[in-house]
Amino acid sequence: MKLSSHTLLALCLVLSTFGCDEAPPHVERPPAPEHDGVHSFASGCYAMDATEPGSTNTRWLVAAPGGETFTFSATTQDAGARFTMRAADLGTYLFFDAERHYLVAQEGTLARTSELLSDVLLIDDTYQSPAEWDLEPSAHDPDRFQLVHRASGRYLGTRGLVDDETRAAVIALYPTTGCAEFPELTLDAEGTIDPQRFDDGAVYGIVETHGHLFSNAGFGGGGQYHGAPFHRLGVEHALPSCEPFHGIDGRRDLIGFAFAGLGDLDVDALLPALITGQTPEPNHATDGYPTFTDWPNSWGSATHQTMYYRWLERAWMAGLRLFVQHATSNSVLCEFMAGLPGASPTRYSCNDMVATERSIEAAYALERYVDAQWGGPGRGWFRIVTTPEDARRVIDEGKLAVILGIETSNLFDCFLTPREGFPTCDEAHVRAQLDRYHELGVRAIFPVHKLDNAFSAGDGDRRVGQIGSFVNSGHWSSFVLDCPVVDSVFDHGDVVFGGLNMPREDYLAPAPNDMSGFADNPIGTLRPFLANLQEPPLEGDYCQSAGLTALGETLIRELMQRGMIIEVDHLPRRSFLRAYELLIEADYPAAGTHGNTHGGVIYELGGVSKTGLGRCSAPDRPGAMGDRLRDRIALIQAHGGYPAEGFGFDLNGFAGGPRPRFGEDSDCGTPQANGMEYPFESYRGDVTFTAPHLGERDVDFDTEGMLHIGLMPELIEDARNDGVTDEDLEPLFRSAEGYLRMWERAEARSAELRGE
What we know:
Helices cover 27% and strands 14% of the residues. With 756 residues, the protein is an alpha+beta fold. Strands 1, 2, 3, 4, 5, 8, 9 and 12 form an 8-stranded antiparallel sheet that branches. Strands 14, 15, 16, 17, 18 and 21 form a 6-stranded parallel sheet that branches. Helix 11 (427-439) runs parallel beside helix 15 (550-561).
């Protein structure tokens, strides 16, 4: 048989230690090290040897001369490469050597590289990294393993990749030392989380009623919202520089510019930016891991990740035990950004329900990822739950229970103006979609978000949402001054774009404007309406003219039939009042996770809202930072509710987190005292927190505020330093119990409504 030049070269590499004219010695493989299965190697330091099936003559994997490839040629473990095995998923690993290079397979050879590409950096939804390896029990030896190259499906052989499992190398992994630390963010916290309940049996812990871990999965997945809670390849790919997406100096981040500081909209500055496709001045420093100059910043930046999983883990260590994860997106913002000249492409459709499904998939992937880091299925602290009983069990284990929800405008593709290619949104469609997403694990739903849909007028947002609703439906805004007297989170005040407001009698009338070309040509589609956009605001307390449609009422009744959590705070005033009529009629609880209690009625129904802690101390009154929480608990008790209330930060949701108390970014009008001191202990005393870091950057909570969810421990400690007592804070740490009681009541009432 004639050997190819490629085969001869590979053979010579294997024989290089001995010379091509000298047969290599037989090296008897050591006994297989003890292990606890394929999941037990996460974050460990190992050397790897390999033998051909049926042989005991072994070699260890080592960098070949020149350092560009790996080869099984070392005759001792000490001479072999040392790998940190970083879990990319359950049973899937990256091999990261002591010189910070990865084992990758390229065209069948074992390459060695210091940098990896990814689906994020390439903006390529189909890309699979050649650095990922699935670890499996060997088909030839029950005590050893084989490796499957995830991208190609081929097996690791002793001289490269092979197609047939019968030729797969039999490998063993030997614990060793001298490995490099895999890139990751620090926790800056130490302690052991043990299960605990209150003396009366209530579960212990805080609920975050409203969060968006996976906003990066919305907006077409193309980096308009930048940064992920995790990435299979690590933090370098979860939180890289946003420059490829937001442009140099962040000047293509028009969404972030529109929500700059998360305050009022600057129309005069926004319109020119929309036309030119970039901000007039540098917008933000784009660097991410490990320097993080300008982001994350929950209160100042709307388009960068604030809930990386290590930050969420730090919040969990401070007592977070229940988290409501809402899938979100905005198709109009996505289509606008993707349609600008020179824009970075999206990875998939801008459609809201595509984003929803991606977010749900990502939530389950994060659950697996955390499990993988913690040693196997079910071992991680992040657990998706589908019943209150599941949640209580998870919390009793000291873990974080996660509820899946949906907060998006075109729920179930039920557009106000029907679109070609989508099913008719009728009662049968709504029931089928509810059943489908319930099966996927969704338990909380907003009937409407920013934009008008087939269920209700949108929430009445007067900023970018007003333009978005115009584009989404082709209908002029329909704001009026004849408004019901009721508190509203969004549907009140001046109309920013007065020239878009032309109230109509029939909410479901055919749309007068054709917006079908917007995705392909957003500027061209909006250009005929430029004069309307430049007209002055309408001053007064305006509200949406329309309320719930008949289909919207069906949606709410069907949610009740399934015992699902109904989120009401994005309903405009008329829809809000009608929804409460339906809730009261059914004696069914609701969730008001933007803080609207309807004067306490929500608690009379057994529902929940959200509150928080004040951010400014009072010079003459210790404990002033606890006023909001104390006042809310008094309101709950006055209306017969369970005296507990959690947070609703709405991080990654264009809402804005808690600002600093000190420095130029503080909103406090009085001198502040008693800043943070480290270390400090958690409320329970089971965790010690040290000064936080963002990669190479030190974080000063006093002057920077709650930049991300991982600084929730500081937020609580800041209140304690101000004089808020542990007794004052107890309702916060009972808030998971309060939320679960609402959910249990919803399920109980659902069963009664169904006649069970």
